[in-house]
Amino acid sequence: MGPQIGRVALGWAAFLVLASVILLFTLTPGTPEFVVTLFTLCLGLLLGLIVVALVVVTRRREKHEGGQ
Question: What is the structure's pLDDT at 24?
Fold first, then answer.
């Protein structure tokens, strides 16, 4: 994964999480909009975790291959 792709994906994840959190404060629990926003928050968090995990794995691999 290139650095630019990681930055863009992390930016999208941050946007999804931030927008969802702000919207959750304005929506009424139990409405369809609330459920969709909660789902979007989960997707943003999942995307962020995937990007961070891929960055960690890539750095470890580069460090391991560079040490040989």
Answer: 95
